[in-house]
């Protein structure tokens, strides 16, 4: 029986009721949402110190987030490989993928620590708006970067555990680490209960301590599996090849959204504020849809590993329908709340007016995104990362980026930017739908060998 499944659901491939899909998706959503929620708490604690420490946290946190988000292949790529082995009945092989991903996480994470320690000054200087902000950000970043290997170990742990269809334990491990950070953060920042008052640096120390706990829990889970813990260069090399394609795909997203923010700022403070609010709501929606995509990835990978491509195709259709229905419900909620929800974030009439220009684009693309995210999960589960890389880059270059820069040239404002995002999502839907219907992704077997 797949670990974490209810009694009576022994087949990890064919019998996939909605309860099982959402049983994988809901804990995965918890993992996805836990870090952003903690960051809000961290901001609130540091914000009590004043504007300068808060600005330093914002800059340092942005740099750390940009570094770590480019390496999500350690979770998504590992899930795809581990799920196939799990579907083939090879649990030890599935966990072994987690072992090698963990070694890769430690190697890459250590390299990041060294690189940032050497280059922290110039890096924060490029992002920060002044010398005082740069100094605060650099002080925070030099401590916080020691958490990079720990964050990456957590990603690898999430990857192999999702692959064996257990999304509950990773949630427990992540929440345990964040809870410890949440306790330590105000204590170390403000010097409560006789502790030293480290101010901004206390936030970084609290983060690293909490990340250490999560990493130890993930490492302990590997040790308890009693598998070979030695590094295997050949396996890590194949994982890195998958990682290359996923990193390039992630960079395409970053280029699009950074360009959108840059152009929105050219339209004035009200526009950039409105764009940021709607974008954060969009990020919330994508988190919920991504949790279903993770369930698709896990189950499709298991079906292909078991040599059942027909089951994988049925799963792809079923999960896409559920994801689309869920996205339609979200769209209905945000459509009904268009007069209320924006006012939860601001009472500024200029910002509210600008938000109105983006709001209906935001609502309209949700059902389309429901299809896109589900099929992204299907193709990720199949290990079809080269296609996803090429499709994302092409859709960004043809759809999103041209509209963003045309918006600046012709003063289209936020409607122009969000038209670009809409075109981007529609093109991606066409691409992943075509690929899914073609069936070329449904390649059976326990191993994934990405093209070089």
TrEMBL record:
A Pfam family assignment: MatE
GO cellular component term of the entry, any: plasma membrane
Key words of the record: Membrane, Transmembrane, Transmembrane helix
Keyword GTP-binding tagged: no
InterPro entries for this protein: DinF-like, MATE_fam
Transmembrane portions of the chain: none
UniProt membrane topology term: Multi-pass membrane protein
Location relative to the cell: Membrane
Superkingdom of this protein's organism: Bacteria
One GO MF term attached to the UniProt entry: xenobiotic transmembrane transporter activity
Family according to the record: Belongs to the multi antimicrobial extrusion (MATE) (TC 2.A.66.1) family.
Protein name per the record: Putative efflux protein, MATE family
Organism: Rhodococcus triatomae
């Amino acid at each position: 029986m797949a670990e974490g499944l209810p009694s009576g659901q022994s087949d990890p491939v064919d019998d996939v009721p909605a309860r099982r899909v959402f049983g994988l998706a809901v804990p995965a959503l918890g993992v996805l949402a836990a870090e952003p929620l903690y960051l809000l708490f961290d901001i609130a604690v540091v914000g009590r110190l004043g504007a300068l420490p808060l600005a330093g946290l914002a800059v340092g946190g942005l740099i750390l987030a940009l570094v770590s988000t480019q390496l999500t292949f350690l979770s998504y790529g590992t899930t795809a490989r581990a799920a196939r082995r799990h579907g083939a009945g090879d649990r030890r092989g599935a966990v072994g993928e987690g072992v090698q991903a963990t070694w890769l996480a430690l190697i890459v994470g250590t390299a990041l620590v060294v690189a940032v320690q050497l280059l922290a000054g110039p890096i924060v200087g490029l992002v920060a708006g002044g010398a005082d902000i740069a100094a605060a950000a650099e002080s925070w970043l030099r401590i916080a970067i020691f958490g990079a290997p720990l964050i990456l170990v957590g990603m690898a742990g999430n990857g192999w555990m999702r692959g064996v269809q257990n999304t509950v334990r990773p949630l427990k491990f992540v929440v345990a680490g964040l809870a410890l950070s949440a306790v330590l953060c105000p204590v170390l920042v403000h010097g409560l209960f006789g502790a030293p008052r480290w101010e901004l640096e206390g936030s970084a120390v609290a983060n690293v301590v909490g990340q250490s706990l999560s990493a130890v829990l993930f490492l302990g889970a590997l040790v308890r599996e009693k598998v070979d813990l030695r590094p295997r260069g050949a396996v890590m090399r194949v994982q890195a090849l998958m990682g290359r394609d996923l990193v390039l795909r992630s960079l395409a997203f970053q280029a699009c959204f950074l360009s959108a923010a840059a152009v929105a700022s050219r339209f004035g403070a009200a526009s950039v504020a409105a764009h940021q609010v709607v974008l954060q709501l969009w990020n919330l929606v994508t988190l919920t849809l991504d949790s279903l995509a993770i369930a698709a990835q896990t189950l499709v990978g298991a079906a292909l590993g078991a040599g059942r491509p027909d089951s994988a195709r049925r799963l792809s259709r079923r999960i896409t329908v559920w994801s689309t229905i869920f996205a339609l419900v979200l769209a209905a909620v945000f459509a009904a709340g268009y007069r209320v929800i924006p006012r939860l974030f601001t009472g500024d009439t200029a910002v509210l007016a600008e938000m109105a220009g983006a709001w209906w684009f935001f609502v309209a693309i949700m059902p389309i995104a429901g299809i896109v995210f589900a099929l992204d999960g299907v193709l990720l589960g199949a290990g079809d990362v080269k296609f996803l890389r090429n499709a994302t880059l092409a859709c960004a270059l043809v759809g999103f980026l041209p509209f963003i820069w045309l918006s600046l040239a012709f003063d289209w404002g936020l409607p122009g930017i969000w038209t670009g995002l809409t075109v981007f999502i529609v093109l991606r839907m066409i691409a992943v739908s075509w690929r899914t219907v073609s069936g070329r992704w449904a390649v059976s077997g326990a191993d994934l060998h990405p093209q070089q």
